[in-house]
């Protein structure tokens, strides 16, 4: 199985289209298809902050649920949008407000379709993907070795938010442990969630959230080649959004 695992998109639809082109995909009946049968895997956080979250949802739904030519795991922003669509009292901040604004600008028929499609996509998604044929585990914020193969609240919190301590930094960001340092498995763990300027490899883990929505780039990790492919962002660069691991 040949995979193209795609980092956090956050509504950057144009960059996603450019990435598919760079990866050698052709548009067939409105969706990107690779001539070698490669499988795209979306790592979550499809929406929020970027300029065109609705188009990203439409495309990912079509590829994952309609045509079944791609796979998807949810991120924390996906979880938040899902809870919004459920009718929960979710704070419209940290990017959700941009997606809600796009959604509310649609006519009622389009709203109904987007809500249904996104909820179906989210409800049918696994918390994380174990892909033994590709020697890979795909989880939005990563997963520690002892949790692979398990489910439950602890696993859900980890794969959506990372290895959080419950404490927060001065700017409000949660304090996270660097779980990748302890990983000793042979399968790749491919994740995103925390924006980094360059793909970060620690042991057999790789963070491919290269902060497209913050002006850096959108990145895919290819297996079995073990190589990254990136396209530049069209968004304004925001240096303060990137985490350094010194």
UniProtKB/TrEMBL annotation:
<dbReference type="InterPro" id="IPR029052">
    <property type="entry name" value="Metallo-depent_PP-like"/>
</dbReference>
<dbReference type="GO" id="GO:0005737">
    <property type="term" value="C:cytoplasm"/>
</dbReference>
<dbReference type="InterPro" id="IPR004843">
    <property type="entry name" value="Calcineurin-like_PHP"/>
</dbReference>
<dbReference type="InterPro" id="IPR006186">
    <property type="entry name" value="Ser/Thr-sp_prot-phosphatase"/>
</dbReference>
<dbReference type="GO" id="GO:0016151">
    <property type="term" value="F:nickel cation binding"/>
</dbReference>
<protein>
    <recommendedName>
        <fullName>Bis(5'-nucleosyl)-tetraphosphatase PrpE [asymmetrical]</fullName>
        <ecNumber>3.6.1.17</ecNumber>
    </recommendedName>
</protein>
<dbReference type="InterPro" id="IPR050126">
    <property type="entry name" value="Ap4A_hydrolase"/>
</dbReference>
<dbReference type="GO" id="GO:0016791">
    <property type="term" value="F:phosphatase activity"/>
</dbReference>
<feature type="domain" description="Calcineurin-like phosphoesterase">
    <location>
        <begin position="1"/>
        <end position="196"/>
    </location>
</feature>
<keyword id="KW-0533">Nickel</keyword>
<comment type="function">
    <text>Asymmetrically hydrolyzes Ap4p to yield AMP and ATP.</text>
</comment>
<comment type="similarity">
    <text>Belongs to the PrpE family.</text>
</comment>
<keyword id="KW-0547">Nucleotide-binding</keyword>
<keyword id="KW-0342">GTP-binding</keyword>
<dbReference type="InterPro" id="IPR041780">
    <property type="entry name" value="MPP_PrpE-like"/>
</dbReference>
<dbReference type="GO" id="GO:0004081">
    <property type="term" value="F:bis(5'-nucleosyl)-tetraphosphatase (asymmetrical) activity"/>
</dbReference>
<dbReference type="InterPro" id="IPR023937">
    <property type="entry name" value="Bis(5'-nucleosyl)-tetraP_PrpE"/>
</dbReference>
<keyword id="KW-0378">Hydrolase</keyword>
<dbReference type="GO" id="GO:0005525">
    <property type="term" value="F:GTP binding"/>
</dbReference>
<dbReference type="Pfam" id="PF00149">
    <property type="entry name" value="Metallophos"/>
</dbReference>
């Amino acid at each position: 199985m040949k995979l193209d695992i795609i980092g956090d998109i956050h509504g950057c639809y144009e960059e996603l289209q450019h990435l598919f082109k760079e990866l050698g995909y052709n548009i067939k009946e409105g969706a990107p298809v690779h001539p070698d049968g490669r499988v795209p895997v979306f790592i979550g956080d499809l929406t929020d902050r970027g300029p065109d979250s609705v188009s990203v949802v439409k495309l990912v739904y079509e590829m994952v649920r309609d045509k079944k030519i791609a796979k998807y795991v949810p991120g924390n922003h996906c979880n938040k949008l899902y809870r919004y669509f459920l009718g929960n009292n979710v704070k419209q901040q940290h990017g959700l407000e941009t997606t809600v604004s796009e959604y509310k600008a649609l006519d009622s028929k389009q709203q109904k379709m987007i809500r249904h499609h996104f909820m179906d996509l989210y409800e049918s998604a696994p918390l994380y993907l174990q892909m033994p044929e590709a020697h890979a585990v795909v989880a939005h914020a990563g997963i520690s070795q002892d949790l692979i193969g398990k489910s439950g609240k602890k696993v859900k919190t980890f794969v959506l938010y990372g290895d959080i301590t419950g404490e927060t930094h001065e700017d409000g960001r949660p304090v996270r442990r660097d779980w990748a340092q302890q990983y000793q498995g042979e399968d790749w763990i491919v994740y995103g969630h925390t924006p980094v300027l360059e793909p970060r490899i620690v042991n057999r883990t790789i963070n491919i959230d290269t902060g497209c929505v913050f002006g850096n780039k959108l990145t895919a990790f290819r297996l079995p080649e073990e190589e990254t492919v990136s396209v530049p962002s069209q968004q304004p660069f925001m240096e303060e959004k990137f985490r350094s691991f010194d």
